[in-house]
Specification:
The complex is a heterodimer of chains A (404) and B (112).
Chain A (H helix, E strand, L loop, with lengths): L1 H12 L4 H15 L18 H15 L11 E2 L4 H4 L9 E12 L3 E3 L8 E2 L2 E2 L1 H4 L14 E7 L5 H5 L3 H5 L36 H13 L31 H12 L12 H16 L2 H4 L4 E2 L12 E2 L7 E3 L16 E3 L21 H6 L6 H8 L3 H11 L3
Antiparallel strand pairs in A: 1-5, 2-3, 2-4, 2-6, 7-8, 9-10
Chain B lengths: L1 H31 L3 E2 L6 E2 L6 E11 L3 E11 L5 E13 L2 E14 L2
Antiparallel strand pairs in B: 1-2, 3-4, 4-5, 5-6
The chains are: A alpha+beta (404), B alpha+beta (112).
């Protein structure tokens, strides 16, 4: 109140040239409703953590950044030496430029074999010196695979909130038979044990813990109490003498620490544009986003369930995803996984989109616009409507996407 | 007469062993509920005994503090695919008896 009164006094008594500028600024703040609540910066922990939880965040981050060597558990086959080697851009926990190779076997109409017994679905692309000395430089795509896929590194910001969304909330968005006749028919993928999946580009992983527990063996070749034997080389055990570290190579506590780090990693901060033009443009873009039915799959907001962790307890998550899989058309199709067919992908989370350098599940799109224009299948109509927008409307939609 | 007595004793011992084994398998199935093995796409969370279509004890070792089973499993979620798995189940001795600590996934294969 005092500040407002002060501005009023200045506008009356002060430099008259400043009046229009100050007036416009005040008008802008009032009309545009700029939210000034402080958001954690990218890579920072969620607001409202207890000192103990903040300590867990820091300890987990240290494990996340731990660089493994063959002597401490790396390999013999691996993709990266640490979690942070891939999740590094623009800060720890983000995306990366590494591209993975995944392979599975799909038999029409509904049979998907993840080829666990042949080294699938993650085909490790690197090997330690002891394995290289035997002429094994990487794992091969299994002969029984019907397709292989490239996968970019997903940013992990806000994943704790995503994990805390109740399953029933996710399932409430399902419409497998397109009963509302909007041409969009999302369904939840299932983990092999039947739980609804939400993590991974095909949503074949049910929880954040499962995701992290599997990342150690599959990405770094590091055994855990839950996966106490080394990943095979296309089904063949690693040769004797190539794995000097005793199993398991990390403890359950380490998995829990990494999980807590990611659980407490804040979602990307939303942009509060400082000028009216951008703000109005983004606001118009948001309306177009809804009008084009983008928001049917890229659901702007869900709410977490009750949680003992205050920072996760009944919080809004601006994830821009329904966490369901949708048919994206034959041009993008690659592997099956779980119950997801080759052309089905989980709706990509758009929060923090502006921090990414490449787009789509395989990083093959250079720009957001290219990614939109390559949508197919259930998204075809939205894509066509986007293409038909005027240049200024496209600019507005992209400005909105640049703000979330 | 003596050989008949021996036969009866052997039969009783065999039945006792089978019953004990069955009870051990049943106990294992119950203890597995709530445990998760593996990770990522290979995660299996044991949610109900119904998912365990078959459990075979392949090996068992025990010392004063730790008991370790190697088991073979046939698993199937409701309406889902069947998987053959091998797992290591570790128990720790507590003041109230043996308590399951964790389950390690040794191998997993989708069955045709």
């Amino acid at each position: 109140m005092k500040r407002g009164a002060n501005y009023q006094w200045r506008s009356r008594e002060g430099n008259t040239k400043a009046v229009p500028a100050i007036g416009a600024l005040v008008c802008c703040f009032v009309l545009c409703g700029c939210k000034t609540a402080k958001q954690p910066e990218l890579g920072e922990p969620l607001a409202g953590l207890t000192p103990t939880q903040q300590a867990e965040f820091r300890e987990g981050k240290a494990v996340f950044q731990r660089e493994f060597t063959p002597e401490t558990g790396l390999g013999p086959l691996f993709n990266s030496v640490s979690c942070a080697e891939c999740h590094e851009h623009p800060v720890i926990g983000g995306s990366g430029d590494e591209i993975e190779v995944h392979a599975t076997r799909f038999v029409f109409p509904n049979s998907c074999d993840p080829l666990f017994d042949q080294g699938g679905p993650v085909i490790q692309q690197d090997a330690t010196p002891l394995l290289r000395a035997l002429g094994i430089l990487k794992e091969q795509v299994p002969s029984r695979a019907t397709a292989q896929a490239h996968r970019s590194t997903p940013p992990l910001f806000g994943f704790g909130l995503v994990d805390a969304i109740p399953e029933k909330t996710v399932l409430s968005h399902e419409d497998p038979h397109d009963r509302d006749l909007n041409g969009i028919s999302g369904r939840a993928n299932r983990a092999i044990d039947g739980r609804a999946g939400r993590f991974g580009r095909k949503a074949a992983v049910a929880t954040l813990f499962d995701f992290n527990a599997g990342a150690f063996p599959q990405e770094q070749g590091v055994t855990t109490p839950l996966s106490p034997v080394e990943e095979t080389i296309n089904g063949t055990p690693v040769p004797a003498g190539t794995d000097p570290a005793p199993d398991p190579e990390v403890t359950r506590v380490d998995i829990d620490k990494v999980t807590e780090f990611i659980r407490f990693l804040a979602p990307p901060p939303r942009v509060c544009f400082t000028n009216c033009h951008d703000r109005h443009l983004a606001s118009h873009g948001e309306k177009l986003f809804k009008a084009l039915n983008c928001a049917v799959c890229h659901v702007p907001k869900m709410k977490t369930g009750p949680s003992d962790i205050r920072a996760l307890d009944r919080k809004n998550v601006h994830l821009y995803s329904d966490l369901l899989v949708h048919d994206m058309g034959p041009a993008l199709a690659d592997i099956c996984l779980g119950q997801a067919h080759p052309s089905e992908f989980r709706t990509e989370l758009l929060m923090g989109l502006r921090f990414r350098e490449h787009f789509l599940h395989d990083a093959s799109a250079r720009t957001v616009q290219e990614a939109i224009e390559r949508h197919g299948g259930e998204a075809r109509r939205s894509r066509d409507n986007f293409k038909a927008l005027s240049k200024s409307d496209k600019e507005a939609l992209l400005k909105f996407l640049d703000s979330i | 007469m003596k050989s008949l007595k021996s036969l009866i004793i052997m039969a009783v011992v065999c039945v006792a062993v089978v019953l004990a084994s069955a009870s051990e398998v049943d106990q294992l199935k119950v203890d597995l509920i709530g445990q998760t093995m593996g990770g990522r796409e290979k995660s299996w969370k044991f949610q109900s005994v119904d998912q365990i279509k078959e459990l075979v004890i392949k090996n068992k070792t025990e010392d004063l503090q730790k008991r370790v089973y190697t088991i073979g499993l046939q698993l199937q979620a409701a309406g889902g695919d069947k998987y053959a798995a091998e797992a290591k189940v570790e128990y720790w001795k507590t003041t109230s008896g043996w308590k399951i600590d964790h389950v390690g996934l040794l191998s997993l294969k989708k069955m045709d």
